[in-house]
Q: What sequence folds into this?
């Protein structure tokens, strides 16, 4: 329940978010009871899916991916968070380093 999308009519965050607080357009990303979660990896433009995460105002990020057994905590102090897209780059670097 914490990570399942609870937005009305199964919509993603792009339909609800103001866009002022994120460097991400939030397409393909739902919201559970406390966390954003990827509901459509193709639309979201990410590898994997099923992960859940949240970022802070100063570009911080935590991410959990149970499928890949990844936990990430990224701490920085860059305001506003849209100044530089650390989050997408971190995720891309981490997922591209996975060797099956």
A:
């Amino acid at each position: 329940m914490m990570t399942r999308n609870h937005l009305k009519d199964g919509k993603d965050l792009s339909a609800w978010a103001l866009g002022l607080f994120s460097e991400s357009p939030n397409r393909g990303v739902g919201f559970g009871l406390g966390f954003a979660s990827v509901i459509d990896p193709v639309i979201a433009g990410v590898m994997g899916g099923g992960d859940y995460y949240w970022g802070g105002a100063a570009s911080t990020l935590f991410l959990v991916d149970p499928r890949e057994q990844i936990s990430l905590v990224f701490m920085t102090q860059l305001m506003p968070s849209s100044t530089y897209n650390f989050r997408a780059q971190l995720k891309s670097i981490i997922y591209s380093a996975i060797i099956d």
